[in-house]
Amino acid sequence: MKFVIDKTNSTKPLKFMPDFPPNKKIILFDGVCNLCNNAVQFIIKNDKKDIFRFVALQSELGNEICKYIGVDQNKIDSIILYNPGVAYYYKSSAALEIAEDLGGIYSLISVLKIFPEKLRNYVYDHIAKNRYKWYGKKESCMIPTPELKAKFL
Q1: 68: which residues sit within 8 A by CB, 6+ positions away?
Q2: What is the Rg, in whole angstroms, of the alpha carbon atoms belonging to the chain?
Q3: d(Cα 117, Cα 131) in Å, to the nearest integer?
Q4: Distance between CA atoms of 88 and 94, rounded to whole angstroms?
Q5: What pLDDT, in 10s, does the model give residues 27-48?
Q6: Name one GO molecular function term (predicted).
Q7: pTM for this one?
Q8: What is the span of the domain harbouring residue 79?
């Protein structure tokens, strides 16, 4: 599902909201989830157009972005794709938008948009609910290597 950002309705004061790199989309992910970290590594490897930047949901910036776009982190168990100042996506819609932005063979995955979002999110929620059990959990968020540091905000 696409949510348009309404800056005029923001009532929550933010500690900071950095100027994001221009023309970059922000992926907020669970920094302690092995499945999520593997997905981030996959996206980085296949992001040939250098579209994405990454922020762990558990980080201060992750918290601030969620406040800004009006997402209650206690009620969402999902990856979030945030296009600064424009819109954000979560759950299956975020995953499909990311695949489409990767281009090439991965953009074919967006054909799954033909299925109702409710059905896609049912499958997404089942995986999200079991991700720690199936893939494990880290004790702390991933620390990017010096080569990858520029991809993380």
Answers
A1: 10, 12, 14, 17
A2: 15
A3: 20
A4: 8
A5: 999 988 899 999 999 999 999 9
A6: protein-disulfide reductase activity
A7: 0.83
A8: 24-138
Residue that has been written with the tokens 């969402």 in this structure: 76
The Cα 106–Cα 103 span in angstroms is 6
* pLDDT of amino acid 97: 96
Tokens 């074919």 correspond to 108
Q: What tokens were used for 105?
A: 């063979």
CATH number at residue 85: 3.40.30
8 in a structural domain = no
Per the domain annotation, does 146 fall within a domain? no
**5 located within any domain:** no
E-strand stretches of 30-124: 52-56, 80-83, 87-90
Coil vs helix vs strand at 98: helix
Number of domains in the chain: 1
Which pLDDT score is estimated for 71?
87
* DSSP class of 88: E
Joined together, the tokens standing for residue 97 give 């938008």
The pLDDT score that the predictor gives to residue 150 is 79
